[in-house]
Here is the input.
Amino acid sequence: MATAVLAVAAATGYALLGHEAPDFALHAVGGSNVRLSEHRGDVVVLSFWGSRCGQCRTQLAALDRSFKTYHPAGLQVFGIDVDDDQGGALDFARTQALGFPLLLDPQKAVARSYLVDNLPMTILIDRAGAVRQVHRDFSSKFEPAYLQQLRVLLNE
Amino acid sequence: MPHVAHPLRFLAPQAAALRLVALVLGMLWLAPLSAWAQSAAVPPATAAPAASAPAGASTPKAQPNPSGEAPAASATAPAAGAAGAGAATEAATDTRGLDQDIQGLKKDVVDLNRDLFVLEEELLFPANTQVAVFISMDVGDFFQLDAVTLKIDQKEVANYLYTPREVEALAKGGVQRLYIGNLKAGQHELVAFFSGQGPHERDYRRGATLKFEKGIGAKYLELKINDRQRRQQPEFEIKDWE
Here is the structure.
């Protein structure tokens, strides 16, 4: 198990793989605040995105489908907007009506703590709060593999 | 607005060193116990061959019997069964004992962790320089807390975002330690900014200031959010625990 995790870490070069996910608290577009540590016990998907990124919107729509399917099984999804100007995120939230919260990180402190170097970037966190998978891009052809990883985490 | 990490993280090197020492001590302490637990776990595994040995030993005794009748074998069977049952009971007793030992060990680890935490706090925040700021809320009908920013001597020392669950916990009477740090003796100023939703769901931002004298002992301050029924407004105050 540890060997596999190390192998993946080496393959992707993502330093947080296998480590505890850094905790954070952020404002949500809806108004309330969200703290990651309150969702320990759930499988959490963090999707870092920006309003100017076309792939990000496609990915958020795909994540919304997954969220609606697997939320009863303990899946939480948070879209984290890293725009300086929050207007784009607010417009997107109004038009798309996503089922999961969109969080605002204008100071990019959370993005820095998760070493975000590409948008969209998706991080899968297991029920114990450890970072298990990272995806630095999104394409619809990756979706089955991504769903497979999600099911594995949900079944643990 | 990002969550501000626990104050201990500002002194991470010292805390990390302490934790490392604790870990090494813990491992040294646990190693003999672990070895003992393994050795204690062996008897049930070896008990089965030991129990089967008498049954196997009875077979040569039965072979010389010229009649080759079954009674010899049937006589050894109850003996083997009794031995097996005895071994199983012994194994069950051993397992129960092992469970109790493991529970005791877990309790010791929890106690050790608590002692280390206290030790860490005493080392990092000695009583003569320690300043701790707490926050509490009474009722909270007129104010829905969103965030608190804390400044001591014009320097921001804490910035905390509250989730609905945390606000609920405060409204139920919980007290949160918002900040712990060190200050030298003398005059200091504490400023707290509270933001959230006030009456009629309007955005609300208020501040409270306290000038306090830090003496030789530890200083405890409390940010209190109260409802002022007569004015239908929230009230913010800072209490100095003497």
In short: The CA atoms of residues 148 and 194 of chain B lie 5 Å apart. The first strand of chain B starts at residue 130 and ends at 137.
